[in-house]
């Protein structure tokens, strides 16, 4: 999102005299809210049936997707391997060959992990500044030097969200003046930490909207608002998971030394990616924000959209879950088959999902080896029955994995 700083001021939600008293029609939201709670419960139930390693895999998959897509909204492409390695390293998971650490990627991973795993730590300006610094380790956004780890200044005019060619920009939104940010943000943090949660999912929707409306940073406002929304969602789930699972009497902080108890671990795991869903629906997301930020303090339509998007994220997690189950099944089947590190690595990449069919050239690219070596790897796996040759399929020979 580009920013531009001329001066006209139409009327925005934060200029209304009752700001920041956001209101909503709870009765109108009751049905979609119940639907989200039901979908979350079903997903949690399915995940509880998986073993711990598979749950870790699911978390890894989801967080990797989250990091990639939350950055992709900004149009910044992160390297999938680097992200997966960084997430795995921070979760303490062994995923075989780890790609080298990348400071930029690690920063984004830090933010997402801190927001969703340490959700019970208070949200403070310092914490948000830390996240901002992690997003912009060089102090630059593209080629523009920005204020990092501090609220923006209005040195070059008011903060506006604009699109379109230079000289003919369309202004979508103008944020509050920088001088008012200390007071505005203070009100936000007070509310976030102390207001009764009501329904915590609604609170997540309000938090996201409120922070992105303040637009308190030079850049990264979307990502940080989504992180704060995710943190509120994690709090919502943490609270609903505060008791032991039904039918067991396991105490909190039970037997698993890594997790502080399987249920404690469960509360910290994420099995769906809201940011990824927002990325898929981002045209709508921008339109909804724009209409809301130009509208009244009753933000029921925004919350309606937010709940719908969240529901689609939770439902979409089924696909991620299916992937994890396929992977587990595949490795169970071939547990006794010796493979070299490159074969394991490439097969995992294929299981994580790839575009199009597996070919010799793709194998060489993923395994970072020559075409001859790739062919040797593949022929070996064909002989053992791990791979099979696809019928027909044009110029290059394609292969498929055999799970049975
Ligand atoms: N038309 C619009 N009206 C109001 N707000 C918008 C509009 N389009 C985008 N936004 C908000 O502004 C954010 C972009 O602000 P900024 O560039 O500071 O954040 P970012 O994290 O760098 O961007 P991105 O969300 O693109 O990754 C978007 O994420 C969205 O929340």
Automatic annotation (TrEMBL):
Database matches in InterPro entries: DUF4172 (IPR025230), Fido (IPR003812), Fido-like_dom_sf (IPR036597), Fido_containing (IPR040198), WH-like_DNA-bd_sf (IPR036388)
Pfam families tied to this protein: DUF4172, Fic
Keywords: ATP-binding, Nucleotide-binding
Residues binding ATP: 219-226
GO terms for MF: ATP binding
Annotated region described as Disordered, given as residue ranges: 238-264
Active site residues according to the UniProt entry: 215
PANTHER family, per database record: FIC FAMILY PROTEIN (PTHR13504:SF33), FIDO DOMAIN-CONTAINING PROTEIN DDB_G0283145 (PTHR13504)
Name this protein carries in UniProt: DUF4172 domain-containing protein
């Amino acid at each position: 999102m580009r920013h531009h700083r001329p001066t006209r001021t139409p009327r925005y939600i934060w200029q209304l005299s009752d700001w920041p008293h956001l209101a909503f029609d709870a009765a109108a939201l009751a049905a979609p809210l119940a639907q989200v709670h039901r979908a979350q419960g079903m997903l949690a139930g399915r995940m509880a049936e998986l073993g711990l390693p598979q749950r870790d895999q699911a978390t890894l998959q989801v967080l990797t997707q989250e990091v990639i897509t939350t950055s992709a909204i900004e149009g910044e492409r992160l390297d999938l391997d680097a992200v997966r390695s960084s997430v795995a390293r921070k979760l303490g998971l062994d995923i075989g060959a780890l790609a080298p650490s990348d400071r930029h990627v690690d920063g984004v991973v830090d933010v997402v992990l801190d927001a969703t795993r340490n959700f019970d730590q208070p949200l403070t300006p310092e914490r948000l500044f830390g996240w901002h610094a992690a997003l912009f380790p060089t102090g630059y956004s593209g080629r523009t030097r920005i204020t990092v780890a501090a609220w923006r200044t209005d040195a070059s005019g008011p903060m506006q969200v604009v699109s379109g060619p230079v000289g003919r920009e369309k202004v979508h939104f103008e944020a509050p003046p920088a001088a008012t940010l200390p007071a505005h943000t203070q009100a936000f943090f007070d509310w976030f930490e102390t207001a009764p949660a009501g329904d915590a999912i609604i609170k997540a929707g309000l938090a996201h909207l409120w922070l992105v409306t303040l637009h308190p940073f030079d850049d990264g406002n979307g990502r940080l608002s989504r992180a704060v929304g995710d943190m509120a969602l994690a709090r919502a789930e943490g609270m609903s998971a505060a008791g032991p699972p039904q039918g067991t009497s396991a105490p909190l902080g039970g037997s698993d030394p890594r997790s502080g108890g399987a249920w404690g671990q469960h509360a910290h795991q994420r099995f769906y990616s809201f940011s990824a869903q927002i990325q898929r629906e981002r045209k709508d997301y921008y339109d909804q924000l724009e209409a809301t930020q130009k509208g009244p303090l009753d933000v029921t339509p925004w919350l309606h959209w937010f709940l719908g998007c969240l529901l689609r994220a939770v439902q979409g997690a089924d696909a991620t879950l299916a992937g994890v189950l396929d992977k587990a099944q595949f490795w169970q089947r071939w547990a006794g088959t010796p493979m070299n590190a490159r074969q394991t690595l490439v097969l995992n990449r294929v299981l994580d999902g790839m575009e199009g069919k597996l070919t010799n050239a793709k194998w060489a690219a993923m395994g970072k080896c020559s075409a001859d070596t790739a062919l040797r790897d593949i022929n070996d796996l064909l002989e053992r029955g791990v791979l099979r040759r696809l019928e027909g399929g044009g110029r290059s020979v394609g292969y498929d994995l055999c799970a049975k």
